[in-house]
Amino acid sequence: MRKDARQHRAQLLEAATKIFVRGGCGVPLELILEETGLGRGTLYRHFKSRGDLIVAVLEAELERVIAYVDARRRTESLLKDFLREYAEIGLMAVSAMNTLGDAKTDELISPLQARANKVCKLVIGDAISLGVASPRFDIDDLLLLMRMVIAAASQETSEEGRKAKILIGIATVFEGYEKLNPSRPVLSTTEKK
Length: 193
Fold this sequence. Notes:
Elements: H1 3-23, H2 30-36, H3 40-46, H4 50-71, H5 78-129, H6 139-153, H7 159-180, H8 189-192
Helix pairs in contact: 1-2, 1-4, 4-5, 5-6, 5-7, 6-7
């Protein structure tokens, strides 16, 4: 790929990420073109469909989160930091599923879900081995926590408001989840002291 083509692709991905986070994956693609100053032909040379663009954005964001997790492995704050970082991807993934529909979601998004689950398992393993999470804490618990945090932020339209709701959601979810599920605490008793 030529240097200018790589730059155009990177510009399109950056703009699409920003616009999808702000307005969802169903926004008019013209917004991305306006943001980059590039033409429709350039967009469709790189991404044959809206679905291809959405998947490329989600892949790039997943790679960013994987790098984030790799840089913070074996730290006590990883579980909560991961939830904060993953929330934006989660919001986009929900929007992508709503935009693409069930058949396209299975075809395009499911392969990414398998990679995301591997990252989740790494986070859980670290949290358990460091004594941050209960040994009974599993991927179903983490996915439930992520859904609750995503729900807390999903109605917020401003970036600052969304980030604030994510932080509030994480704190509330940890506290509330443990009160409702005393037999399956998220945090170990050693961290609570």
